[in-house]
Amino acid sequence: MAKNQSSLNYGPDTALILGERDVRKAQAALTLAPGQGLVAGVQAFLSQEAKMQQADNKKDSDDHQKWLETLEDPSSVYKLSNAKDKQISLNWLRGKRQQYLQAKKLYKQTGNYEYEDKANMLASHINNFVSQTNSYNETQAEYADASHHFGKANGTNAPKYIYQGNRDMLISDDGNINFSITDPEYLVRGGKGNELVSYNKVGQKWNVRNQTAETFISDKVEGIFNDAAVKGPAKHIFSEQKTFSDFYSHLSDRDKYGPENSMVLAETDISADDAYITNDFAKGFSFSQMWESGLLNEKYYKGFEPTGVDSKTGLKTYDNSWMFDEKNSDQLNRSLAYFYTDVAIDRDIDGKLTYELAQENLSEQELEQRKKQRRADKQIDQEFEKPDKLSEKDKQLQRLEDNWNSLTKPKGKSAEYEPPTPDEVISFYRNNINQSHELRYYNQQEAEERSLPRGAGYYRVISGDLPDTPGIETFYLDFIAESFNIPLLKSLYEQNQ
Q1: pLDDT tens digits for range 18-33
Q2: CB 352 within 8 A of CB 233
Q3: Rounded to the nearest 10 degrees, how much is the dihedral formed by the CA atoms of 312, 315, 316, 319?
Q4: Burial of 149 (C-beta count, 10 Å sphere; 0-12/13-18/19+)
Q5: What are the extents of the domains in the chain?
Q6: Distance (Å, whole) CA 249 – CA 330
Q7: Which string of DSSP letters, residue by residue, matches 417-457?
């Protein structure tokens, strides 16, 4: 009988194969497990590191923002109108801020105060620069608003060439703005192209009008007129030398002004000189315009050669560019002081005339008519003045004589002659001869009482110590004259010069 077929299958054992596969997978899993764990660990580590870096970056960004907020707002740099200036400024600012942030970061990390000091120093440089750019923008706008005054303050250090013209901006390490000026006009007027011009020193030193000097001059001139008009020639004390000294000292005061202020004043028409100017052509002219047009006294043109002749006036014309060169600032101050001293002399005469006419009880209309006639006479005198003019000394002596005559001659046609009182003579002496002298007058009885051998007359008081008695002060009486006359007064005037 045939055996039954066995159920065994001698083909590939699927289960075994599957089992071996599982075993191999398990073995493989055991073999590969350490590598996969490392990768997963690295990935986890890197993920954590990235998060920490992000946090650090955010912290750095927050720190940077906080540190930058302590600096001046740099918006003024972006407002610079000159494209080249703006680019130069931004490059400087970015470099400095980077150095500043680095110093702040190093200080935070190390606590080393050297880094903090460096950061503070860099911050001061940045703030200084930003402040100057802000000032520059504001002043440039103000200067533009006064465009009709461009060129008024155009000396070698004047800002005209900073705001307009050929120049390059340069920024120092500490944030100061400087300019290298190559404008031809600047160089012609005495500027030095190889020297940097500091904005901080000259940028804001320009004036449309020098109002402080204008006020000083106007007040002084009109004060002289009013004093003479009220007190008269006997009591009013006017010193030409002191007046010149006052004007010159005021204009030369470096604490109040710089050279550009006198330049502005030279190109300003001051109302105080209106009464002095008799030539209608010169009405409304500034000092520089009158000088340029040849309208002033010859003394103002010594050392200068004329450049031509004015077709309207027939007068010689001159080049006034010297007034706008800083190296000539003292000469300009002296010329201005002399000019306004002449104006003051004229107003002093006006004041005395007003006083004298007031004594005649003239009506206001008659008074103005007399003044008008005087001005017409003065203009004729100027137009027909002879070439051989009086010297300054002769003019002073002539003025002395005129003042004495106005004191001693009758006032008005119907007035009786009244000789001046001793007090009036003493006041005249101090006004015209020597203001520092102390004079006294003694009549004959007073002279005898004081045992004065020269008798009645005018005596000068001289203080001093008694001989052999140091520390005991007394005074001596030096006899001058019993009375004064023109020759004696002129002699005394010359002795006191």
Answers
A1: 445 554 554 544 444 4
A2: yes
A3: -60
A4: middle
A5: 75-202, 211-384, 422-495
A6: 11
A7: P-PPPHHHHHHHHHHHT-TT--EEEE-HHHHHHTT-TT-SE
Dist CA 423 CA 436 (whole Å): 16
Assigned token pair, 299: 């003394």
d(Cα 202, Cα 167) in Å, to the nearest integer?
A: 15
Number of H helices, E strands in the chain: 17, 8
The answer to whether the pTM exceeds 0.70 is no
Which helix (H) or strand (E) segment is 115 a member of? helix 113-145
Using alpha carbons only, what angle is made at residue 489 by residues 486 and 490, rounded to the nearest 5 degrees? 85
| pLDDT tens-place string over residues 200-216 | 877 665 555 566 777 88
The most distant pair of C-alpha atoms in the chain lies apart, rounded to whole Å, by 200
Structure tokens given for 318: 């001159």
Query: Which phi and psi angles does 481 have, rounded to 5°?
Result: -170, 160
d(CA 186, CA 393): 41
How many residues make up the chain in this entry? 497
C-beta pairs of 411-415 under 8 Å, 24+ apart in sequence: 411/356, 411/359, 411/360, 412/359, 412/360, 415/359, 415/360
Q: Which residue has the tokens 């003024």?
A: 76
